[in-house]
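Work Package 4 report. The design task specified in the project plan requires that, given a folded chain encoded as structure tokens, an amino acid be chosen for each position. We show below one input record used in the internal validation round.
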């Protein structure tokens, strides 16, 4: 069991600046597709996976949105369909390489699959673009800890993550590393 926990936050958002908008899609249909991605995201957060998958699928049919395909990947990942999730995350990123959310979701997937080196590379690429992501910093630090990285480096990364995010898992990880340093908790 890991000493530190990976924060599985699947990122499905609409970044209008990063959404590829082909001219051949009528504006009304494109806007409807964006609205469906928002709806799918809400359903995903409510753990209504079947409904979310249908809504993301419909959005992808209306307009070629990376966010819709990424949303389908998030559903597949949560359902344990790792191969399908990987294909969908990769397709979303190929559709729009400015849609970085697919990159972090792919990193989480690779981490879950035990493909540590690939996950680290993807976390690193994401952090180059989004150095303010506490979630990505936490996940990268947890993976580095598992791979035997120096604890001081892991502690520094978790401190950065904690300053960027108030998430409880990040706080717990920072406290566990601190406890290991002062010897109050066994390094499990």
């Amino acid at each position: 069991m890991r000493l530190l926990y990976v924060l599985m936050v699947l990122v499905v958002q609409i970044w209008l600046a990063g959404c590829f908008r082909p001219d051949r899609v009528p504006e009304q249909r494109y806007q409807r597709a964006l609205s469906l991605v928002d709806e799918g995201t809400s359903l995903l957060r409510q753990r209504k996976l079947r409904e979310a998958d249908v809504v993301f699928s419909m959005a992808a049919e209306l307009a070629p949105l990376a966010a819709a395909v990424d949303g389908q990947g998030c559903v597949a990942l949560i359902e344990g369909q790792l191969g399908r999730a990987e294909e969908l995350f990769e397709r979303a990123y190929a559709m729009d390489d400015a849609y970085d959310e697919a990159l972090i979701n792919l990193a989480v997937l690779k981490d879950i699959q035990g493909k540590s080196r690939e996950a680290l590379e993807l976390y690193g690429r994401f952090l180059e673009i989004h150095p303010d992501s506490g979630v990505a910093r936490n996940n990268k630090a947890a993976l580095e800890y598992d791979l035997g990285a120096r604890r001081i480096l892991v502690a520094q990364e978790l401190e950065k993550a904690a300053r960027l995010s108030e998430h409880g898992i990040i706080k717990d990880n920072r406290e566990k590393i601190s406890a290991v340093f002062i010897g109050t908790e066994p390094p499990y």
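Residues 57 and 115 are 28 Å apart (CA to CA). Validation will be extended to a larger panel in the next phase.
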